[in-house]
Write a structure and sequence with these properties.
Layout: H1 4-29, H2 33-38, E1 45-46, E2 54-55, H3 59-67
Antiparallel strand pairs: 1-2
Length: 83
C-alpha cells in the first residue's frame, strides 16, 4: 500500500504533466513560438505522424512557418492519461 507521501508525489507529478500539456497548447494558440520550443527538453524532439523528427533547435522557426500562416488556432488538450 502506498504511503501518503507517495500518493501526494504521484498526484503532484500528474498535475505537472497535465499543466505542461496545457502550456504547449496555450503557447501555440498565443503564437508564442519561442515559448513553445522552450517547453521541450534540450534534447527533446517533436515527432508528428508525418515527416521526420524535429529537434528542439529549430522548432521555433519550424512551428512558426507551419502554424503562423493561420489567423488563429485552437488546440484542446483533454482526457490526459498520465502514468
Amino acid at each position: 500500500m502506498a504511503t501518503t507521501d507517495e500518493l501526494v508525489r504521484e498526484l503532484h507529478d500528474r498535475v505537472l504533466v497535465s499543466e505542461l500539456l496545457l502550456r504547449f497548447a496555450r503557447a501555440l494558440d498565443e503564437r508564442d513560438w519561442a515559448g513553445y520550443a522552450a517547453l521541450y527538453a534540450e534534447d527533446g524532439v517533436l515527432q508528428l505522424p508525418w515527416g521526420p523528427p524535429r529537434p528542439r533547435e529549430g522548432l521555433e522557426a519550424d512551428t512558426e512557418a507551419n502554424l503562423g500562416r493561420f489567423h488563429a488556432t485552437q488546440h484542446i488538450s483533454s482526457n490526459h492519461q498520465i502514468s
